[in-house]
Amino acid sequence: MTHARHLRRVAGILGCAALTSIAAPKEIHTAAKPLSPLEAARTMRVPEGFRVTLFAGEPEVRQPIAFCIDDHGRLWVAEANNYPDKKAGLNDRIVVLADTDGDGRHDTRRVFYDKLEYVSGVEVGFGGVWVMSPPHFYFIPDKELDGVPDGPAVVLLDGFGTTENAHNIANGFAWGPDGWLYGTHGRTNWSLPAKPGTPTQMRTRFDGGVWRYHPTRHVWESFADGTTNPWGIDWNEYGDAFVCNCVEPHLFHVIQGAHYEPWRNRPTGAHSYERIATIADHLHYTNTKVVRGGLGTPEEDVAGGGHAHSGTMIYQGDNWPAPYRGHVFMNNIHGRRINFDRLARAGSGYTASHGPDLMRAADPWFMGVTLAYGPDGGVFVSDWSDTGECHSVRNTNKHTGRIYKITHGTPNPWQGDVGALDIAQLVALHTHPNEWFVRHARRVLQERNAVPLALRQTLYSEQKAPLRLRALWTLWVTDNLRDLELMRLLGDKSEHLRAWAIRLHCEHRPPGAAALKAFAQMAAGDDSAVVRLSLASACQRLPLPDRVPVLKAMLARGEDVADQNLPLMYWYAAEPVVAADKAAALELLAACKLPKVRQFITRRLAAGRPAGNP
Chain-centre distance of CA 148, in angstroms? Predict the structure, then answer.
């Protein structure tokens, strides 16, 4: 099948016009010069009805490794001028770009901070700007978000790794529905994050994956372990997280407490024995022995362009057509395009199938990093604009950088400030079709520690689960959800509400006796694989003795044998129990109807207790 025929076929599945074919070059990123920013935008190929405009280009923006969007709709852009020299000095910076007249192109620019050493992530909220700049994680106060720091940068954590290579570092940032700030982290540069001055022996080693930090309790923790170099995280309407991977299998459903392929012989999760695989039923590259071996070939062009990805986005805006909503988009770095994967429920998790590329760039220097939709539903995409591998191991030029905007039809311009709205207006935004408004409203209410009691009516209504979940999350982050309500939600008709009630029971402290009893009953009798997945994650946050009744019930669920997540998640929760308590391990073994987990229990018993245990 020719490339053009393939594009027509997959476009027909989606119900949109096929993309114009761009011949794959024989070599990747070899042109001496990039197209001009305006020409690069003009020559991008997108489906019928879409258009690409230039939001900003050099010299106004350079080396845009990350960006976020604030309550005004302005872009805060992290410029990695030092890359790949980790000791080049304090040359990286944050710039603020705004489109004040709504024409889709920035017209104001301010340098916010220009003394960063190796920037890789930025987010705003809670009175300032959160910046990942390994080895440091900073908070720069700016209460009014006027683009002028209120004081010096504060080092919240240090110990993030930079020693092994120029990339594979802690990166990205996004506010999760649970009120935590999430980040991704490459596998090569392992870290020992902690507050400055913490002795090495008191630090927790993190080998890469997904981590999170609470903005008011100032707690850091690992969320999930593995993959190679995840870059970007986003959530669907049910609060399930996804990351794309820069190198090899490209997409993962992120489950709290999970271990993901590939392991790469790291100490973390040494007794996981098997790790959860990608949810994608396809690859975007063709040579599985030498991942770069197919670059530039027609076959790789049809497959998706290459093995390296960045900038996970689940589109939940209100500008693109409905068939795109709720699905995954990511930059394909070598393929000079934006890949599109269609999500579908599969057991306790998801599968992702190959859709038609959303955008293909003619500019040989296009190298997309970040994707995000804004208040008008249009999608911003940053372009590192360089040659070399990934966002440029060789990094031949530091003067280029672009940010484009992809819209469908003519979007309705939005001018405003979510942060200036009152409580009633912020609550009203929870029904907005553009998830951007919902997320910003939730964060503002969390910052104020407000009392959005009107959302309690939504939570217990007959509305669809996504709207009720929006209410649940906001009531939770504003400390307006009582334990009795969480207990009530354990019996809710929606599997997603039940699953989140389990998770929230275990967020800040161990659950009480009533919740533990309910967990065991749900493990034995709940017919939802989603609920059992949440129980498996929650078990990892319980004291070891409290896990046993829940695990015994789940391990007896023989119907879970073929699920892509449940047997392994059960094992991850059971492994510390097996290592520490032989009697409990034998109880679990006797109850277990999952052959893989029976094998793992036996193997772990034979290995003996971990060093240091009595």
Answer: 29
Q: How confident is the model at residue 384 (pLDDT cuts 50, 70, 90)?
A: very high
DSSP one-letter code for 208: S
The confidence score (pLDDT) of residue 9 equals 35
CATH for 482-614? 1.25.10
**The pLDDT of residue 30 is above 90:** no
> Based on the number of CB atoms within 10 Å of its own CB, is 98 exposed (0-12), middle (13-18) or buried (19 or more)?
middle
The whole-angstrom distance between residue 464's C-alpha and the CA centroid of its chain comes to 24
Sign of the alpha-carbon dihedral angle for 569, 574, 579, 582: negative
Architecture of domain 3-26+44-408: 6 Propeller (2.120)
CA distance 242 to 264: 21
Report pLDDT digits (tens) over 393-430. 455 688 999 999 999 999 999 999 999 999 999 999 99
E strands, 202-295, in order: 209-213, 220-226, 230-235, 241-245, 251-254, 259-260
Residue 87 token pair: 């000791």
Percent of residues, the chain, with pLDDT higher than 90: 81
Cα distances from 559 to residues 179, 244, 341, in angstroms, run: 34, 30, 28
What residue has token string 């309550």? 71
Whole-number Å distance between alpha carbons of 278 and 245 = 10
Rg (CA), the chain: 24
What is the overall mean pLDDT for the chain?
91
Encoded amino acid at 277, one letter: A
Please tell me the predicted confidence (pLDDT) of residue 2.
Answer: 37
Cβ-based neighbours of 9, under 8 Å, separated by 6 or more: 1
Q: Which residues contact residue 260 at a Cβ distance below 8 angstroms, ignoring those fewer than 6 apart?
A: 209, 224, 225, 226, 227, 252, 275, 276, 277
- Domain spans, the chain: 3-26+44-408, 417-478, 482-614
> According to the model, what pLDDT value does residue 396 have?
66
Q: CA–CA separation, 377 vs 221, rounded Å?
A: 32
- Cβ-in-10-Å burial (0-12, 13-18, 19+) of 121 comes to buried
CA distance 244 to 233: 7
Facing residues of 329 across strands?
313, 340
Which has more confidence, 489 or 227?
A: 489
Q: Which residues contact 264 (CB under 8 A, 6 or more apart)?
A: 187, 228
- Position 19 scores a pLDDT of 35
Q: Where are the beta strands (DSSP E) in 17-58?
A: 50-57
pLDDT at 22: 37
**Position 565: which residue type?**
N
* Maximum Cα–Cα distance across the chain: 69
CA atoms of 573 and 576, how far apart (whole Å): 7
pLDDT reported for residue 614: 31
DSSP 276: B
If 0-12 CB within 10 Å is exposed, 13-18 middle and 19+ buried, where does residue 291 land? middle
Which pair of structure tokens corresponds to residue 378?
């249009």
Q: What strands, in cross-sheet order, belong to the sheet with 251-254?
A: 230-235, 241-245, 251-254
What single DSSP character describes residue 345? E
pLDDT for 293-340, tens place per residue?
Answer: 888 899 999 999 999 999 999 999 999 999 999 999 999 999 999 999
Q: Is 55 helix (H, G, I), strand (E, B) or coil?
A: strand
